[in-house]
Amino acid sequence: MKKKVPLKSTKPTWDEYFLALTEAVGSRSSCDRGRTGCVITRDKRILATGYSGAPKGLPHCDDAGHEMHTVIHADGTQSEHCIRTTHAEQNAIAVAARFGISLDGGTLYCHMTPCYTCAKTIINAGIKNIVVLKDYHAGKRSKEIFKEAKIRMTIKTKEVEMYIGNQKSNKQ
Question: What is the Cα–Cα distance from 159 to 142, expressed in whole angstroms?
Fold first, then answer.
């Protein structure tokens, strides 16, 4: 009689698990342009979560529309950003601050490379590792300062998240 061989586990890695949770957290976002979530952990335990949306008590994009702002970059190119929302990373860090939770030495999981403003906030919060699902087309400066600050960032796929006007698109 043959011995039964146990089936190989389909248990996700910790990175896969926490990245999947960012998608669930992001489903609460109130900006249809970028429904993203963030999970911050330390020692494989969740410390805080956040999703993109308007500040507490203020109108959401889904209700009031986008508040678009045009940015002119050093190379002369322009991009549009919705400034009504607070990014998922900022919201997760604010939640931790509100409840007195230290993020020092933590790992931040999010959908794409954090923007430059979020990157500076992440550095100041003491987060040491960042794991993202996709790269972000405007994330070059963020990557540079993460490297300078000795923060390790891992990008899990080759996909690049791009925003063109009000629309989100991906390229590989």
Answer: 17
